[in-house]
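Onboarding guide, step 5: your first structure request.
Type a short instruction followed by the sequence, for example:

Predict the 3D structure of this protein.
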Amino acid sequence: MKTIMVDMDDVLTYGNFSTILEDYLGYKPDYNNIKTYYIQDILGDKKDDFFSKFKDMDMYKNAVLLPDCYDILKELSKHYKIYICTDYIWREIIEYAGNNLKNKYNFLYEKLDFINPNNFIFTVDKTIVNCDIKIDDKINNIEGAETKLLFTAWHNKDLSDKKLKEQGIIRVNNWKEIKEVLENI
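The system replies with structure tokens like these:
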């Protein structure tokens, strides 16, 4: 049975962190103009204050799965062994990583009840995970897979189709597109 590694943030669920950030800022930043992967970098000298408030929050408390994600993953689980692989360490508050780990685990356990919790992988370095298919929004995280699906996010939307094709990467924008690609490989 082939294996699939699926990222959590901005692939299974979206907007949890950005909603908290927007509440803190009091406005919605123009995500189209942010060029960094770590959205919190826009905070500049307010970053310490933000993370002092954020460290105890459960950003998954009100999170939801992206449209079609549950049904398509459940269907795929009949044909593939699925692993959810997610980073849980905030570089600004490493000492509070356990809080985020617990919150991510609880969300996955509750929302993806058909996936064995033994298939939840919590790591910063996803290149250590060997799977046939990798689905992630960060290009470095899909290295080493036979099939590489880059889920479109604000920080990768400017990567050209030419560059992606040269690296054997297929861009996907939603879960219906993921299903279509996997049906045709």
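Each response can be followed by summary notes, for example: The first strand starts at residue 2 and ends at 6.
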